[in-house]
Amino acid sequence: MQPEGQGKQKNDFTKQWETFSSEYTNFQIEMNTFYDAICDKITRLENQKNEENGIIGWCQAQINNLGNFIEKLLN
Fold first, then answer.
1. Is 47:61 a contact under the CB 8 Å cutoff?
2. What is the CA radius of gyration of the chain?
3. Whole-number pLDDT of residue 2
């Protein structure tokens, strides 16, 4: 059994850990937001290209949208 930390060092460490944990969580949220935005932009550009192919292009765009949705959902 290890002795529990006590005093100022323990309090300082706990505060630093809580700050790090909070900032890391915020970083992950921001990275996911950026990733989703990049996926959306790529999908929009691909769909613009697909629109040149009439109904087949429309079908391709819908499949592309679904793929984008699933990729972002699994991220």
1. yes
2. 23
3. 47
Taking the complete model, does pTM exceed 0.85, yes or no?
no
In one letter, which amino acid is 41? Answer: K
Determine the Cα angle at 19 with ends 17 and 21, to 5°: 65
Q: Name the amino acid, one letter, at 73.
A: L
- Whether residue 46 contacts residue 68, with contact meaning beta carbons closer than 8 Å, is answered with no
CA distances, 14 to each of 3, 8, 49 (Å): 16, 10, 53
The per-residue pLDDT for range 12-70, each reduced to its tens digit, is 999 999 999 999 999 999 999 999 999 999 999 999 999 899 999 999 999 999 999 99
Classify burial at 46, counting beta carbons within 10 Å of its beta carbon; exposed 0-12, middle 13-18, buried 19 or more: middle
Decide if 25 contacts 18 (C-beta within 8 A).
no
